[in-house]
């Protein structure tokens, strides 16, 4: 099976790692940039992301010195940005040591994924410009340099402005969310000179209307300053800023004029800032093509604009589920068509994203309630309600979600359906799978990978 992955961001690199485990797949990754790189500030690696990095063999490349975890293992602290008062501290409980939340530079995560890849499969300076379905059932892909390829499966991992998604859903259009992010990095030893700044904290500093400042050590003498603003932008600005542009520090600072002194001092240390307008589009109920030969993963399918600090983790879970679905279809006694594999992938992932969108709807409802004209709250009171409602433990299920177990439950269902339709199940021990406990089933499924690699 010939597969093309478009994009070498977290989603594309993860897809490539997982596809490399499938001996029946011949894959290439096409990236428009001239090299695989990641710019920008910090990124959270949550439990779900760690789980995937371990499965993918990339966790070993994230060195302790390149990441930051507070000594007391708090996950996050929430402050009132105006007064500097600590509102809440969330600790990580019942999480294995190796899966505790850390922050690192985005490039650190990218490099770890890159190192776990067969880099000879990654073709750079390959900007996809066209996709067409062929009567043979294959997909043709055209690049800006005039070259083309034909594949059995096209994986769109090309981010929020996905060309692959535009082919699949021509009427789907992304638009400005009204939220603009500013990000910069400051040497940690400079941040340490600011009296009253909790340099060791993973800290959100909240303002009314969901605006915030985020400060965090990233390891290696790098300190992150990211802010989220509600910024009206005209059409021109939206287009320009959507790709990220250099901005003046005062542009960022003007939103937080009443913030307490240590943060003003930190703004003053910012060498320059990058400004990004957040874009999103209508939610896709499905992320596969009708003919069953195109699938979207990562932000190409569901850009969540950083809402959960776990989008890269979701992208990795997509990649894992897609490859596992291909494997499932292939190892059946009567191998299933590609379209069926993609349906399984979609069945695993789309409901999860639907639940995540439900959380976004909750956030929105809280914001609308707080904006009600008859609700006479001070800014500080609004901040306290926002933190209690939107940043509580009630959304912990997101980081507790285990895609490997989730996938197995869908495999059980799919195996059963497969058996019902032709009286057979997958080649390797699948008849036992249904009666085994989850961890055992997981290891059995793992063995199926191993035994598959050297077919009988
Ligand atoms: C403010 C903010 C904070 C965030 N914080 C976190 C966090 O803390 N933790 C976390 O896990 N996630 C976080 N995220 C989300 C995370 O950044 C994304 O979900 C993740 O980068 C998605 O990866 P991706 O590979 O799908 O897309 P991208 O990272 O966008 O990669 C897409 C790749 O495709 C390439 N490409 C695009 N078009 C083409 C084309 N036509 N041809 C060839 N190649 C192409 C691009 O060059 C790029 O390399 C945050 C997001 C935002 C906006």
What does this structure look like?
- It is a single chain.
- The protein has 456 residues and is of the alpha/beta class.
- 38% of the residues lie in helices and 22% in strands.
- The protein has 15 helices and 19 strands.
- The strands form four sheets. Strands 6-5-14-15-16-13-18-17 form an eight-stranded mixed β-sheet, with helices on both faces. It has a five-stranded parallel β-sheet with strand order 8-2-1-12-19. Strands 3-7-4 form a three-stranded antiparallel β-sheet.
- Strand 5 and strand 6 form a beta hairpin.
- Helix 2 crosses helix 9 and helix 10 runs antiparallel to helix 11.
- It is globular.
- 41% of the residues are buried.
- The C terminus is likely disordered.
- It binds flavin-adenine dinucleotide (FAD).
- Flavin-adenine dinucleotide binds next to helix 1, strand 3 and helix 9.
In terms of topology, how is this protein built?
Elements: E1 2-6, H1 10-19, E2 26-30, E3 42-45, H2 47-55, E4 67-68, E5 74-80, E6 86-91, E7 102-105, H3 106-115, E8 122-123, E9 128-133, E10 139-143, E11 148-151, E12 153-156, H4 163-168, E13 175-187, H5 188-191, E14 203-206, E15 212-217, E16 222-230, H6 235-242, E17 245-247, H7 249-253, H8 261-269, E18 273-280, E19 294-296, H9 311-331, H10 338-370, H11 379-390, H12 397-400, H13 403-422, H14 430-433, H15 438-453
Parallel strand pairs: 1-2, 1-12, 2-8, 5-14, 12-19
Antiparallel strand pairs: 3-7, 4-7, 5-6, 9-10, 10-11, 13-16, 13-18, 14-15, 15-16, 17-18
Helix pairs in contact: 1-3, 1-9, 2-9, 9-10, 9-13, 10-11
The structure holds flavin-adenine dinucleotide (FAD).
